[in-house]
Amino acid sequence: MSDTQNAGEQRIPVTVLTGFLGSGKTTLLNKLLRRPELADTAVIINEFGEIGLDHLLVEKSDDEGMVTLNSGCLCCTVRGDLVRTMSELFLKRSRGEVSPFKRMVVETTGLADPAPILHTLMTDPLLASRYRLDGVVTTVDGVNGASTLDNHEEAVKQAAVADRLLLTKVDIADAPKLAELKHRLQHLNPGAPFHTVATGEIDPNQILNAGLYNPETKSADVKKWLQAEAYEGGHDHGHGHGHGHHHHGHDHGHDHGHGHDHGHGHGEQDPHDVNRHDDRIRSFCMTFDEPMSWSTVAAAFDALVTYRGPDLLRMKGILNVKDTDKPVVIHGVQHVFHPPATLDAWPEGDDRKSRVVFITRDIGESTIRKVFASFFDAEKKGWGKDAGE
Ligand SMILES: Nc1nc2c(ncn2[C@@H]2O[C@H](COP(=O)(O)OP(=O)(O)OP(=O)(O)O)[C@@H](O)[C@H]2O)c(=O)[nH]1
């Protein structure tokens, strides 16, 4: 465990702007780049194929701080290009060859799966030492969004892993359909603050600084980052599904495979609805009252990642780990975990419950709970000693 990642965070925050084809990413970016909050922003635009036009549509006064990658899709063939481009931009910045940008926006193609892009940011040693993920901002088309979600699983993933969800084109969309789509998105991803946007107009503060590190307070803002209360029954997501309000106060030694809301796709698979892509997505927050042994937690996550890695779309958490007073923050995307970071203090003082938010595909809460329970049981029985405690 290292605490280097949140001590005086110097790395450049990166916003990944994603959203299905035509959902309004470029329109949004254009408006954002005119705002003073984004004055010192480098932009990378990924276009699919040789005939991409987006870069011609994005107006930026400082052209050197904008790079277009058009040899393929960032999530597949051009990851190497992303690494190279981001590294080169950083070098140019150090040499004074481009203006000293303070943040970066990466606009993905409409078909991109954001996960590999996040992996690249998290795992490439060069990038990870210079940049940090601030957040994933996903645009959803207010007019075509519902059918896109029905027909394209990538669009569902883009919305499910978002840190901020933007429903666009509200100026031309039908109000009842918008309300339905809003409800659907909030159900899909209850933890992501949600905003409506007309012609790209939004206060940049609503979408920037979504990461763990808050540059305004110069410290970690776990509460804002984790949004755990969104899953704990404190919010009504339209129907009051109460994403996990039954999760309070469980001792990690037990498995409570219970209380799933089958009718709405947040429990185990609903046999009637398996064809709806977003009904494959689950989001829930698990809480654990007792301090956990790090080796046991790590082994449980290892097992989950090994067997279900591709379906663990996103995990964020704050853990109370035995033998340390300091909270440990974890962040994973599919099979890739950030190195865990140790914070100086618990964000809410005496409340030291561990909380882990999961966004998964086809994995219900009870399954994950069972995995944790079996590892905690094994630890109790002394098997954990073999895991190197
Ligand atoms: N009326 C209206 N039109 C919008 C809005 N946002 C985007 N559009 C229009 O929708 C079309 C697609 O918008 P873009 O911003 O190019 O979408 P994109 O997500 O960058 O598209 P790709 O690059 O194809 O993935 C354009 O014609 C925009 O002018 C909006 O909020 N209101």
UniProtKB/TrEMBL annotation:
Annotated segments matching region Disordered: 232-276
Domain CobW C-terminal: 281-376
Keywords: Chaperone, Hydrolase, Nucleotide-binding
Xref: Pfam families: cobW, CobW_C
Domain of life assignment: Bacteria
The keyword Nucleotide-binding is assigned to this record: yes
Gene3D superfamilies xref list: CobW-like, C-terminal domain, P-loop containing nucleotide triphosphate hydrolases
CDD domains per record: CobW-like
Recorded catalytic activity of this chain's protein: GTP + H2O = GDP + phosphate + H(+)
Species name: Reyranella aquatilis
Compositional bias per record (Basic residues), positions renumbered to this chain: 240-251
UniProt name for this protein: GTP-binding protein
Biased composition (Basic and acidic residues): 252-276
Family statement drawn from the similarity comment of this UniProt entry: Belongs to the SIMIBI class G3E GTPase family. ZNG1 subfamily.
Keyword Hydrolase applies: yes
